[in-house]
Amino acid sequence: MAQEFFLDSPMPDVLAQWQHYLALLDTPDDAQVLDVGCGSGDPLRLLARTALDAGEFVGLDKRFLDHHAANHTKAEAEDSRIRFQEGNAQTLPFADNSFDRVLCVDVLEWVPDPGLALAEIDRVLRPAGAALIVHTDFDAQVFAATDRERNRRIIHAFSDAGPNGQMGRELNGLCRRAGFASIETSVYPLVNTEWRPDRYGYQMARMMTEWLAQKQLIAQSDLVGWLDDLQQQSAVDSFFYSINRNICRCIK
Ligand SMILES: C[S@@+](CC[C@H](N)C(=O)[O-])C[C@H]1O[C@@H](n2cnc3c(N)ncnc32)[C@H](O)[C@@H]1O
Question: Measured from the CB, is residue 37 less than 6 Å from ligand 1?
Answer without folding.
Answer: yes
